[in-house]
Here is the input.
Amino acid sequence: MSGLLAWVDRRFPLTKLVKESMTEYYAPKNFNFWYFFGSLALLVFVIQVVTGIFLLAHYQPSASKAFGSIQGIMYDVKWGWLIRYIHTTGASFFFIVIYLHMLRGYLYGSFRKPRELLWIIGFVIYICLMAEAYFGYVLPYGNMSYWGGQVITSIVGAIPYIGTWLAELARGSFGIGTPTLNRFMAFHAVLVPGLLAVLVLLHVVALHETGSNNPDGIEIRDHLGPDGKPLDGIPFHPYYTVKDVFGVGVFLIVFSLVVLYAPTMHGLFIETYNYIPANPLQTPPDVTPAWYLAPYYAMLRAIPNKELGILTLFLAVVAPFFLPWLDRNPKAKSVRYRPVYLVMVVVLVVSMLVLGWIGMQPASPKLLPPARFFLVLYFGFFVLLPFISRIEPTKPVPDRVRM
Amino acid sequence: MKKLLFLALLVLGAAPLAAVAESGPQLMTPHYHFDRPTIREGARLFAEHCFSCHSMSRIRYNRLETDLGMSAKTLKQDIMLPSGAQLNKGMVVTMRPKDATKWFGVAPPDLSLEARYRGVDWIYTYLMSFYRDPSRPTGFNNHVFPKVAMPDVLAPLQGIRAKDGSVIEKGSVSPQVFDQDMQYITAWLQYASDPSKLERDSIGPWVIAFLVVFTILAYALKRAVWRDVH
Here is the structure.
C-alpha cells in the first residue's frame, strides 16, 4: 500500500495535496455555528449535480414535451419523484446556505484584507447561482416558467441599443419556446455548473492561501508557535472534518424533512401556478419570482421607470463587490467589537427580508412606499459604511482568539 | 444583545406576512385520513360520477392495483372504462375534446394536477358549493367557481339547493354521506396529483430516524476528537 502511494506521489502530489489542504491546513479553533455553511454549500452543489444528471436523463427540452416529461419523472420514473424533489429542494437550500454563508462574511468582516479576492470569487459564485436557478426554473415549462422566462429576458431587452438583439439571442427566437429550452438546458446543465465547479475550486484555493477568518476577525497567523504553526490553529482534518460531518447530519435531517413532508413548501419551493403547462395566451394573475430572487424583483418594481429600475437592480447586485474597500475600520473587522456595524448589518438583513416578502406579493401601489424605504436602507448600508466604519466606536480587540 | 437583535430581525421580517388578508369565498378544509382505503373509495366515486368527462391521464390504471391495493376485479368492474382501456395506460376518457367543447362550451379539464394547482380545500369546497341558478345554461352555478360550465352532476346525490343554501329538492343520500363522499373524492384527487405522498409518508420516519442516529454518532465522534482542544 505504501509502495503504491510512493509510486503515485512520484507522479502526482497526492500526499502533498492532502497535507496542504487537510491534515496540515490550520484553521482557527474558534469557528462557531456560522462556519458550517461553506462545507454545506459544497454538499448541496454535489447533490444538485448528481440529481441533475438523473433528471437530465429523462427530461425533454422541447415546448411540447418538457412539461409532460417532468410529470413523467414524477409519476412513472422509479424514484423519479424523490430525485426531482431533492433537486427542487436543493435549489432553495442552496440559496439558504449561501445566504447564511455570505451573512457570516458580513458579520465577521471576512471580506477584509487579505481576503478581497476570496470574497469577490465567492460573490461571482452567487451571481452564477442566480443564473443557474433562473435557467433551471424555466426548464419544467409550467406557466410560471414561461412567464418568468418572458419577464427576465425582457429585462435584458431593456438594455439600450443592443437589448432587442440580446433578448432574441437569449430566447433563441422572438418568444420563449423550444429554442429557448434547448439553450437554457445547455446553460443549466453544462455551462453554469462547469463555471461553478471552477469558481468553487478557485474559492477554496484562495481560502487556503489567506487562511480562514474567524468570529474575532483577527489573524491566527500573527501568533505562530516555535514549530511555525499558528498557536490558535487546529488541523482541518480531523477536527473540522468531523465537526462538518455533524453539521451535515443536522442539515440532512432538515433537508429530508422538507423533501419527504413538505416538498413544495406550500408553494415557496415549487410554485403552485407552475403546475399549469406553459400557455402564451394565459398570463398568470401575478408573475412573481422564486423567493431567493424576490428582493431584487421588489427593487426593480420600486422604481417606476424601467431603465432606471434595471440600473438599480444592477447596482444592488454589484454593490457587495466593493465591500472590501468600503469597510475602513482600522482596528476591527468583526461585529463582536463593532456595535454600530452590527446594527447596520441587522438593518441590511431586515431590508432584504422585507424586500423579499414584497417581491413575492402581487404588484400594489400600497407596497411602493415600504419597498422604496427598504431599498434606501439597503443602499444606505453601502453608502454610509465608508464613513461610519472610520469613526464608529470600537471595543478593544483581543490579541488571541476566544473560544 | 446579539440574540435580541436577531429575534427583532425575525419578528420584523415576519410581521408583514401576518397582515395578508385572504380574498374570495371562505374555503372549507376536508378532514380525511390520507390512506389507501380512503383513496380507493374516492377513486370509485370519481369513476362513477366524474370519469365520464374528466380524464386523470397521469395515473395509469395498474397503479390502482400496485399502489392502492385495489383488486383486479374491482379495478375492471368499477374503474376502467369499457372501450379499449388498457391496464398500463393512463385514465383517459373516451369523450373527444371537440365534442366536449360543443356540448359544454369548454372541454372538461384533465384533473391529474388539479389538486396541485387549486389545493384540496378549493376542490372540496367547489364540490360542496353548487346551487340552482336558472340564468345559467346548465341551470346551476357554483360559489367558488362563478359561471362554471360544468353541470351539477352531483345533484342526484346532494339534491338541489338555492343560492342561500335552502333545499329545493332532496337528494338520494343524506347531507352527512354526501359530505363524506366529497371528502373521499378530494382525497383521490390529492393522491392523483402527487402519488409519492403515500411512499413519502411510509419511508419518512425511517429516513429521519436513521439520520438522527447518524447525527448523534457524528456528534459523539466530534466530542471525542475535540477533547484536547481548549
The longest helix of chain B spans residues 196-225. Chain B has one domain: 29-213. Confidence is low (pLDDT under 50) at residues 1-7, 9-22 of chain B.
